[in-house]
Here is the input.
Amino acid sequence: MTILLMIKSTCILLIINALLTVSCSKQTSAPEKAASTPPQTNTHDHSGRPDRNAPKPIPAFQSPESAKTLPKILDASLFTGSVKAAYQVVGEIPETIAQLPCYCHCDRGMGHKSLYSCYVDDHAAGCGICINSAMKAYKLQKEKKMSVEQIRQELIAEYGKS
Here is the structure.
């Protein structure tokens, strides 16, 4: 009898925890998305089926105003190789990186506000999309003198394909 009560109590606690987790994630992610998520595109054809040629929805990115006050990223010296290089370039052009979407879709799963958010923790260290996007943005800004809007369009063109 006591074991049954313990099992029931444990199950109830797990259910309550799951409900609280879902509820909290909805409450915290909605305001961030409202301020930073760009308009979404239609991803279905006229029959209601998914349109394989439609672009993917654009992940969240920050406005120029919100990109002026950013948390610190991890120190590049904690890493080596291409990861270190990516953290270094993000440190050099933080406002640009903050205004770019990240196509690993960490805005959905982790609540990230932009590509910059990936570098505040070690998420980018294990993500090729984050690393490649930052390196490409740096190259486009420094070598081709592209604006943030032009860089964003380049990333959307590269990663936004279905």
Q: What stands out?
A: Residues 81 and 87 are 10 Å apart (CA to CA). The two ends are 55 Å apart (CA to CA).
